[in-house]
Amino acid sequence: MALSGLVAVLPYIALQLIGIRTVIEALGFTGMLPLLIAFVSLAAYTWLGGLHAPALTAFIKDVMIYIAVLAAVILVPIHLGGYGAMFHSAAGHLPDVPDGHIVAQGQVVPYATLALSSAFAAFLYPHTLTGILAARSADTIRQNAVFLPAYTIVLGLIALLGLMAHAAGIVTTSSSQVVPQLFLAIFPSWFAGFCFAAIAVGALVPASVMAIGAANLIMHNILPHRSESVTGSRLAGFGVKVGALGCVIFLNARFAIDLQLLGGVIILQTFPALIMGLLPLRLPAPALVAGWVIGSVAGLGLCWIDGLKPVHPVAFAGFSASVSTGLLALGINIAVTLTLGAVIRLALGASPSTLRPGSIRR
């Protein structure tokens, strides 16, 4: 299971590296140099600062992102003639949507299932618990949870930047360059630089926490005899970042967000062991392991067949749509786990439907 957490976090960190690389490319650097700068920055940031580095800079990162986003949603529409003019101009660049729906008919199921799979996966990543366990107290966690919805609002505002870019006439061959080019076109150079710094720091902080969480997995589950070694933890974290760099170079995902969604496909396969294991009905360990292996292989196989896309076309009994690959693999995982669990219980003489907690552990 630790292997799933380790592998799943690599494309997630790769997504952050792409974010840092993007702003460096916007400054005029070309070739592999922006990616190299992004990698060295992340490696040095984590190696020298450890968990203290993201903890101390997280507040600064939040303030910078809020300033950049609020400035964008206020000043850019003013520059474009107001929100009405902006939406009218952007509409000319967008495909017609029937019946006035925001999402086209064929996009509803993929969007909904991807959102659901992302919600399931959110608290399964190792770096999620890293922040919780490193908190000073339970009150700190509660206080942060209160303000989390504000971040969701910011994400909604960030989504408007794409429409602003359409209205501003931004043309680029890379979808990742849309926002940086918008900032360069609208803002003065000094504030565009500030926005670039906000993007870079906004990627650096979560990437470092992810790398530390993955390093903890390695040191406490794969190399437990070295778990107290600081140097070993640093080397493990460095190895994780090298793996993420490999994902950027060798996984030719069409959109950067696909890397995060691919990580979700992998980490979702730990759901039965981590979440269903909390149920009173204890599932045998061999069944959980078999479901995890088969679900992981199925999910990765479907992603490979679909060209590293996180959705897979499904046609059954008149239903036809693209569905989240992570959910499909999770369904296979759960089916295998429950079926094999029932077989094991029957083989041991226990009821397949009722079982006292803890009566079968292997």
What is the gist of this entry?
With 362 residues, this protein is mainly α. It folds into 2 domains: 2-106 and 125-256, no CATH class; 275-362, no CATH class.
Q: How many structural units, i.e. domains?
A: 2
* Unreliable segments of 5+ consecutive residues: 354-362
Please count the beta strands (DSSP E, at least 2 residues each). Answer: 2
Global structural class: mainly alpha
List SSEs in N-to-C order.
HHHHHHHHHHHHHEEH
Provide the spatial order of strands within the biggest beta sheet.
Answer: 1-2
Q: Give the radius of gyration.
A: 23 Å
Fraction in beta strands: under 5%
Helix count equals 14
Shape: globular
Instruction: Estimate the mean pLDDT confidence.
Output: 82
The percent range for helix content is: over 70%
The biggest beta sheet, please?
2 strands, antiparallel
C-alpha end-to-end distance: 16 Å
Describe this structure in words.
The chain is mostly helical. Helix content is 70%, strand content 3%. It has helices spanning 2-26, 33-49, 52-79, 83-91, 108-121, 126-133, 138-168, 178-186, 189-222, 230-250, 257-267, 271-274, 285-305, 325-347, and strands spanning 311-316, 319-324. The chain has a two-stranded antiparallel sheet. Helix 2 (33-49) packs across helix 9 and helix 7 packs across helix 8. It starts with a helix and ends in a 15-residue tail after the last helix. Pfam families: SSF. The chain crosses the membrane at residues 26-51, 63-88, 108-125, 146-170, 190-214, 235-255, 261-281, 288-307, 327-348. InterPro entries: Na/Glc_symporter_sf, Na/solute_symporter, Sodium:Solute_Symporter.
